[in-house]
Write a structure and sequence with these properties.
The complex is a heterodimer of chains A (286) and B (256). Chain A has twelve helices and no strands. With 286 residues, chain A is mostly helical. Chain B has a single domain, classed as 3-Layer(aba) Sandwich (Rossmann fold). Chain B is built from eleven helices and ten strands. The mean pLDDT of chain B is 92. The chains are: A mainly alpha (286), B alpha/beta (256).
Chain lengths: 286, 256
């Protein structure tokens, strides 16, 4: 009787363990398949020209996506420069003062903003910038991406700053520091690696967005760095090439996808590294 | 020297509430220059709450409300007209848990108060850092690693770093809220030792759980129970010849 019971328990344990392993694989396998597929398809089309050339005229083989890679950096950089300072300030407000109606409203707006489909944000930027200027532009794309980045930065900043124990803030105040100096130079500065992590994750998410760029920065087959003209970006370039009927363009779309994945994965890895380095955290390590 | 000349802090009829809870009940005490005064009492007796009012850090606790007078340099520092930032520049605080500022080096931890007050000159800051670390009996241990993070030190060293950090802004009064309760006996002994040096320059008011500590280091001791001041006097008197039955019971371990 006893032995039977023990066997039954062991069996249950094995079944449950297998279920967990299966669930883990179900998550990991698709990810690896995507990466592997893009690698195989993209790697052969990836060459030096891809990074240094702009597209050749239709019908000619060759050319690259230099304009789109640089375009992505410009749009994302600009979007970050709008959204990161604002996001950190809003996040600090929520964490340090965050009581009352304004804070509740800000929190609600942030949550709603996170949930808005990115194409809707694109339409908003279109109406706000493209229509009045009568021109697709880098600025419009950057605005759209900054709206995507903003709520992520606000929420991650709030969460990170809330990890700073209250007695650290009190110690700052007890030195006779005004509250704003304590917040900026002790709480925010002390959490900088956590904040950087949040910012990098937000940016890497925005870097892969296509929908909000389709009718804001629009895309460009030529190299442009102008803020008020259409500009190419990797996701839109991939989209354009992928739906084209030309074999060479489709190959380049795979290469573009590979570069984009490497970029986003790279950013994620960097943020992981920063996070690990900061594991010392606030507690004492014994 | 008369007593009044030497009074640096004069607490008159201090009452503190958390919401409806009356935590500190009409306490009046005087503190003399260059002395160490201890506050002892069982948990929940309001001793930390009382201490936190003395530099208005109690305002950081939601719902806390203090009434009464705390006279410092002829001014009631509890008054709404007085900027708490100014109060805290004169009345520093060391906390129960060692709390060096995260992401800052040992050196930065010490000079951050001065830096943020606008002192930029490197040589002045360095000189000050050395002086304060020496006063906190930490200089010898950290002089070769001032750029290491403050968090990398041991608990006892961290607490001495926090003392150095408080001293750096030269407050005449230093409040200590159970500064050794998170430390081992050796680290505790070091801090007690440095405190008797400290009182040459600052007036120390310390809350402690540890009666022996109060007896060892404090000139005066106050005994609190449930927000009331039961007895106050010279430490020798309190610990050898208490006047109140409750004090006697507490120090002899019959309750607490």
């Amino acid at each position: 009787m006893r032995e039977w019971h023990l066997k039954y328990r062991k069996l249950k344990n094995i079944v449950f363990h297998m279920a967990l392993v299966f669930a883990a694989c179900a998550v990991i396998i698709p990810l690896f398949m995507v990466i592997q597929y893009v690698m195989i398809k993209g790697f052969n089309s990836l060459n030096w020209d891809f990074f240094t050339q702009i597209p050749k005229p239709v019908g000619e083989v060759g050319g690259g996506m230099k304009h789109a890679i640089i375009g992505t950096f410009i749009i994302v950089g600009l979007a970050g420069s709008f959204a990161i300072p604002l996001g950190i300030i809003c996040g600090a407000y929520l964490s340090e003062y965050g009581r009352g109606k304004i804070a509740a409203l800000l929190r609600l707006s942030t949550d709603v903003l996170t949930g808005i489909p990115s194409i809707v944000i694109g339409i908003f930027a279109y109406l706000l910038v493209v229509v009045p200027l009568k021109q697709f532009s880098t600025l419009a794309g950057a605005l759209a991406l900054s709206i995507i980045i903003l709520p992520v930065v606000i929420r991650s900043t709030e969460e990170i700053l809330k990890l700073v124990p209250r007695h650290i803030r009190e110690a700052g105040l007890a030195l006779g520091l005004p509250r704003w100096k304590m917040i900026f130079f002790i709480v925010i500065k002390g959490s900088r690696s956590g904040l950087i992590t949040g910012v990098i994750l937000a940016i890497s998410r925005a870097a892969g967005e296509t929908a909000p760029l389709l009718f804001t920065s629009f895309g460009n087959m030529y190299y442009s760095t102008s803020l008020t003209n259409p500009i190419a970006s990797l996701p839109v370039q991939i989209y354009t090439y992928a739906i084209s009927p030309f074999d060479d363009w489709q190959r380049q779309a795979w290469a573009g996808a590979l570069v984009l994945i490497i970029l986003v994965l790279g950013l994620n890895l960097i943020s992981r590294l920063i996070m690990n380095r900061q594991q010392l955290g606030f507690g004492r390590r014994k | 020297m008369t007593e009044t000349d030497n009074t640096v802090l004069n607490v008159k009829n201090l009452n503190v509430w958390y919401g409806d809870f009356h935590a500190v009940k009409g306490i009046s005490l005087e503190y003399q220059r260059n002395t160490i005064s201890a506050i002892i009492g069982p948990s929940g007796c309001g001793k930390s709450t009382y201490l936190r009012c003395l530099n208005r850090i109690h305002e950081e606790t939601p719902g806390a409300r203090a009434e009464g007078e705390i006279l410092f340099q002829g001014e009631n520092i509890l008054s709404k007209m007085v900027d708490p930032v100014r109060v805290r520049r004169s009345i520093g605080m060391v906390f129960q848990k060692p709390n060096p500022f995260p992401g800052m080096s040992i050196y930065d931890n010490v000079v951050v108060g001065l830096k943020l007050q606008g002192i930029k000159k490197k040589n002045i800051l360095m000189e000050h850092a050395e002086k304060c670390l020496q006063k906190a009996a930490l200089w010898e241990e950290v002089k070769d690693k001032l750029n290491r993070p403050g968090m990398s030190l041991s608990g006892g060293q961290q607490q001495r770093l926090c003392i150095a950090r408080s001293l750096a802004v030269s407050p005449p009064i230093l409040l200590m809220d159970e500064p050794t309760s998170a430390l081992d006996p050796i680290a505790t002994a070091k801090i007690e030792e440095l405190m008797s040096e400290l009182k040459k320059e600052v007036t120390v008011i310390i809350v402690t759980h540890n009666m022996q500590q109060a007896a060892r280091i404090a000139d005066n001791t106050s005994f609190f129970v449930l927000g009331d001041l039961i007895e106050h006097g010279l430490s020798e008197e309190i610990f050898t010849n208490p006047k109140n039955k409750k004090t006697e019971d507490y120090i002899s371990g019959k309750f607490g």
